[in-house]
Fold:
Amino acid sequence: MAWIETLINGVLLGGLYALFGLGLALVFGVMRMVNLAHGEFVVLAAYFAVFLAAQFPQVSPLLLLVPVALAAFGTGYLLQRLLLNRAVATDDPLTPVLVTFGIAVVLRNLMVELFGADPRALDGGALATAGFELGGLRIGWYPVLVLGLAVLAFGALQWLLRHSRFGLIVRATSDHREIVRTMGVRPRHVYGVVMGLSLAFASVAGLLLALRTSFTPFSGVERLLGAFEVVIIGGMGSFWGALAGGIALGVAQLVGQRLDSNAGALYAHLLFFIVLMVRPNGIAGQRA
Amino acid sequence: MSLLEVRDLCSHYGDLQALFDLSLDVGEGEATALIGANGAGKSTLIRAIAGLGRRSRGTVRFDGQAIEAEPAERIARRGIALVPEGRMLFASLTVEENLRMGALCGRAGHWNLATVYALFPILREFRHRPATRLSGGQQQMVSIGRALMANPRLMLCDEISLGLAPVVIAQIYRAFGDIQAQGTALLVVEQDVTRACRIAQRVYCLLKGRVTLAGRASDFSAAQIANAYFGH
Structure:
């Protein structure tokens, strides 16, 4: 019984990991660009949520998702328009890697300067500990909510890309970013919106994680590693693969924790390593 | 006044000059052919008109308006559509989605999904297939259809017969009559001189970035064209 509980909680935790990877997979899929500052933006969103929670203590932390996601969208759009579009335009994959690496270093130190290096957390109140019994199993509301939000985010993004006019433009731009201009599309604007969406998803993940674990300005590296593992296990650029990858990592971590209470994360990394050896293109990717 | 007036256009590829003081006219609803050997500057000219290349000097007027400094996005909305070399279809999109991309400029007119399918009936049959799974000729039809969806006043066609079987090429060029009948002017890059002279009212021959021959297609003998083409 305890094992089933571990499995279920692993799946639920996986939803959070999947959300980390979603934004990274979106940006890579559309712009063929790796955003090394993804983890720092996750942490920055968490700090912003803590700041808002201090200003409006009576507001439920879940409602803070809206302003945090909107601010992240705006930040992502401006970042892409003002800086990253120039890096992408060089057509050298290394340029955006170096630029975003620099942004990550700057953001990390800026956060130390502004917020200090002490661990912070977002108080979830009753939500963090509340749960329910299901057939003798104890399941927390918080992880159920996280998985629900993750599935919702994946579904919404999938629908947007497959069936909306915006999705049509995004897919076409990802195929031929020069030719779309002769159809009246402005690729730089499209990239801005995509980066905005990516950081909005990252900020949702950042806030949800802040409810569960404490964070410092240095937590971004760990978040980025998790996001990368999700994307690579899932298959680069595949969204449902990223969701499956997140769940696999969550289960591996919690099963690992049961076997060896100090080394849960090790098992997640081991799983990543094994997938990389056996299926280097990921679960949803084509075989090499 | 011509629909498109190019005057003294110069263009560079890095340190290399590709076009030298080039001037060219395309009349309203008229078909104009651009012939010349590889490297003559035909594609550079087409890209410059569409706003994709870098234009260093000279003017391009469309419908009396100077467009040489405008970005490709705005030129597209003015009514210039491009059928690019190598087709450049969107591989992640179906045939119909590719066609819908062409309509994004929101220009009204004769061409829509139904009329494009009437022009190329085979596309209706394959409309839900990924565009790049089609045969070369069918892909070229998608590329032309995509440009038509913008209801352009001028359609630029770059090497549309490249690598296609003669039967397919004939089939595609037959559609040009219908396209012109709807008032769209054409500027067509074509390697086959005989075919270019047959479909076009006016011919320009380019050699090393300069116009070596310009005028009505019927006015020139084969020898004159050959001289302009190879530069003897």
Q: What stands out?
A: The first helix of chain B runs from residue 42 to 50.
